Structures are given as structure tokens and as C-alpha cells.
Amino acid sequence: NVKLLDHYAGKKPANGSLYLTATHLIYVEASGAARKMTWIALHHIATVEKLSITSLGCPLILRCKNFQVAHFVLESDVVCHEVYISLLKLSQPELHEYLYAFSYNPKSSKEMRENGLKLIDPISDFGRMGLPNRYWTITDANRNYEICSTYPPEIVVPKSVTLGMVVGSSKFRSKERVPMLSYLYKENNPALYHCSQPLSGFYTHCIDDELLLEAISQTNPESQFMHVVDTRPKLNAMANRAAGKGYENEDNYANIRFRFIGIENIHVMRSSLQKLLEVCELKTPTMSEFLSSLESSGWLRHIKAIMDAGIFIAK
């Protein structure tokens, strides 16, 4: 006899049964002809919170990574504790082999499953963008992930660039993430490249990296200069200089225009998101309280910074 509370719709608590499998939590309502079922994949559970016992029973709150919140109430504190411990273990496996992805067996043929591994074909995608062409070439220099462990085997570089330049640039970039083409608009050749921050510190520079960026800018004769967009706040980038990292110095690169966007780091984003979720869980807020809490979370400000970056790059 487990209750499922609904704080948002204001409905009466549902009564039903709670089941735990190796991969899912399943709640089945006892009443109603359809016997509504709620399925929650264990790997979706972010936190499990066991509250103090109340007159209704022992509350157990599940907050999921997809923002779903499930509030159960169990009659017995002992049973609630057992479920709590089980959920902690099942939702946070010690080995990655225990994750649901490794036990999932879709109803498809072996051929279909193998074809699924080929859904992403970088060479085909490059061809869609008109590559290779007179300015760009596709190289498999990273085929054994020797240049960068987080990049694909095939990367696109300007034809004028040598392998030595690519390797030299990678040594100058955090985690070897050399400037790499993400998208080319084949109508008039503007290109989007992505890379990590340079290991420039206060005074260090790299000839290979400078030559690589110059070669990239020369692939579009219609453009007078190249925009280098740093998504971080400038203060964060300057602080990284003390750790031997930082950002590109315009004095060392030909024809670049540098711009900071001001998107905060992942820790600030997580904190803001948590505040936003707390706002959404307020039971009976007034409009003034809701809007004030929403503003305090900073979430809309972060979203605006991201959209501003997208608009600037698109234009």
C-alpha cells in the first residue's frame, strides 16, 4: 500500500504497489480500470531522499535527471528504508557494466543492431558539406586517436596545413583539442571551427597554432578577418592564465577579432538549474514570489547568454 502524491495537479494521493527491478522502478495504481503505471528508469534517478515519518507514513522523494519528481509515501519506516537503500545501490552502480545500456536487448535483428553503429558517418557528413574541396582536405591523422583522444579519427583541415602543424597546435591546446572544422556552409565558404583553450599563460605562444589559424582564415577569401569566440566570462579566462592556460593574444594571430561571450561554467549552471527546480517545486507561490525566485535563480540570464552567442555566430 504505497501512495504517490501529486503536488502539481492537486489530486488526491494515488494508492498502489511499488516494484523494483534490476533496471526500473514501477508503480502500479490499485484503482481504475486502466491501472495506470509509472515507470522510472533507475539510471534516470539523480537523488533519493528519505524524509522523517509523518501521519501519512514515511515519505520517499525521487528527483530524476529528466526533471521528473516522484513523491512516494510508504506505510512502514523499515520497508521505506529498505527501498531507499536499494534505490541508492541500483541507481548508482559501482561498475559501468551494470548500467542499463549494457543489458538492454532491443527487439531487432543482429543486422539492424550492427547497422545502428553506422548511423553516424563522418565522411558522409563531410560530403554533405561539399568536402573535400579546393580549400579543405580530410585526413585520418587521428585514426588511432594519437593526436586527440576525444576527436574522431577523421578531421578536416585546410589543404595548406601540414601534419606537423596539426600536431604542434594540439600540444598547445588543452587536452590536445586542436582547431577542427564542425560545419562548412558550401555556398560561400564560411566555416565553424571548435577547439579548447590555448596553453598560453601570460607570454607563451605557438607558431604552429598561429599558422593553422591563419590557414583557416585564408580558406574564405571573401572574409577580411576571422572571429574567435570565447564562450567564457573574460574574468574566468584571465584567471586561467595563472594556471598556464588562457586565451589567444590578438597580437600573435593575423586577422582575428576576439570576443568573450560570458557563459558561466558548468558549476554555476548546475547551481542555477537547482534553484530553478526549487522554484518549480513551490507549492502555492504568488505570481510575485514565483517571478522573484525565477529571477534570483539566474537561469534566464544564462539562457540569454547562450542565445546571444548563437545569434552572434549565426550572423
UniProtKB/TrEMBL annotation:
Q: Where does substrate bind?
A: N265, I266
Q: Which UniProt keywords apply?
A: Hydrolase
Where is it found, in Gene Ontology cellular component terms? Answer: cytoplasm; nuclear envelope
Single GO term (MF): phosphatidylinositol-3-phosphate phosphatase activity
Which InterPro entries does the entry link to? Myotubularin (IPR030564), Myotubularin-like_Pase_dom (IPR010569), PH-GRAM_MTMR6-9 (IPR048994), PH-like_dom_sf (IPR011993), Prot-tyrosine_phosphatase-like (IPR029021)
An example GO BP is:
phosphatidylinositol dephosphorylation
Q: Which residue numbers delimit the Myotubularin phosphatase domain? A: 116-315
UniProt family annotation: Belongs to the protein-tyrosine phosphatase family. Non-receptor class myotubularin subfamily.
Q: Which PANTHER family match?
A: MYOTUBULARIN-RELATED, MYOTUBULARIN-RELATED PROTEIN 8
- Protein's UniProt name: Myotubularin-related protein 8-like
Which species is listed as the source?
Neophocaena asiaeorientalis asiaeorientalis (Yangtze finless porpoise)
